[in-house]
Amino acid sequence: MIRILCIETSLDYCSVSMIEDGKVIDSESINIKKSHSEFILILIKNLLKRVKISLNRLSAIAVNKGPGSYTGLRIGVSTAKGLCFSLDLPLLSVNSLDLMIYDVKKKNLVESGSLLCPMIDARRMEVYTKVVKDDLTIIKDTHAKILSIDSFNSLLKINKINFFGNGSSKFKNIIKSNNAVFIEKIIPEAINFNQIVHDKYLKEKFEDLINFEPNYLKDYYFKK
Q1: Is pLDDT of 88 > 60?
Q2: pTM to 2 decimals?
Q3: pLDDT at position 59, please?
Q4: What are the phi and psi torsion angles at 204 (to 5°)?
Q5: Which conformational region is residue 157 in: left (phi greater than 0), alpha (psi within -120 to 50 degrees), or beta?
Q6: Distance (Å, rounded) from C-alpha 136 to C-alpha 20?
Q7: Model confidence at 219: pLDDT above 70
Q8: What pLDDT shows up at residue 13?
Q9: Collapsed DSSP state (helix, strand, coil) of residue 66
Q10: Distance from the Cα of residue 46 to its chain's centroid
């Protein structure tokens, strides 16, 4: 049996889940801003206790590699790598945007033939985003984008595009196209790791544990 502990800390919402052979058997979460360093190990402990699985019975650890909050990603990846090193387990990673795409597909929230565009807030009018077809063919891979009224114009002329994620509200306020559809309350969650990380495990797509780093997409900014 393949058991994978999944860790999600890319945004304010912090969650963990246990995957057995590609299925979520339980999860634990908390939604308190900047709580990750304080609560992530507590969430893991509570989850393991509830499912009655010890750490030495795990097959792998999976973590969100980003994009997302610099601090949140750093905490999640550090926790995952620490567990992998101590337990001699392989590390798997997932993309924040792919988690949200998986969620809207799982919930059948998009019209067949339309495009999917997850967005994560990256301050001001910038977002982390990607664009895929409903069959998951990539049109534009993960990148940082500054939004304007002209963003996605060429695609919106001939396609219906579904925008979702905590960065999409900024675009909703400026875009006028009838082909722009906005889906609410979609965030990266550990309960959506299951099929992605199970398939990666079977294909042995493990990360280089020593050199693995989150995908921040851009440098960390700080104020004096």
Answers
A1: yes
A2: 0.92
A3: 98
A4: 55, 40
A5: alpha
A6: 24
A7: no
A8: 86
A9: strand
A10: 22
59: left (phi over 0), alpha (psi -120 to 50) or beta: alpha
CATH number for region 97-183: 3.30.420
**Three-state SS letters, 146-210:** ECCCCCCHHHHCCCCEEEECCCHHHHHCCCCCCCEEEECCCCCCHHHCHHHHHHHHHCCCCCCCC
Confidence of residue 39 (pLDDT cuts 50, 70, 90): confident
Determine the Cα–Cα distance for residues 7 and 140; give it in Å rounded to an integer. Answer: 26
Amino acid at 107: K
Q: What is the pLDDT of residue 222?
A: 43
> For 184-206, what is each residue's pLDDT tens digit?
999 999 999 999 999 999 999 99
Q: Do domains 3-95+188-202 and 97-183 have the same CATH topology?
A: yes
Query: Nearest-CA neighbor of 37 among 63, 68, 4, 9?
Result: 9
Q: Where are the domains of the chain?
A: 3-95+188-202, 97-183
Distance of alpha carbon 137 from alpha carbon 135, whole angstroms: 6
Tokens of 87: 């337990």
At the topology level, CATH places domain 3-95+188-202 in Nucleotidyltransferase; domain 5 (3.30.420)
- Kind of pairing, strands 115-121 and 126-133? antiparallel
* CA separation for the pair 85, 75 (Å, rounded): 15
Chain mean pLDDT for the chain: 94
Nearest Cα neighbor of 131 from 110, 86, 122 is: 110
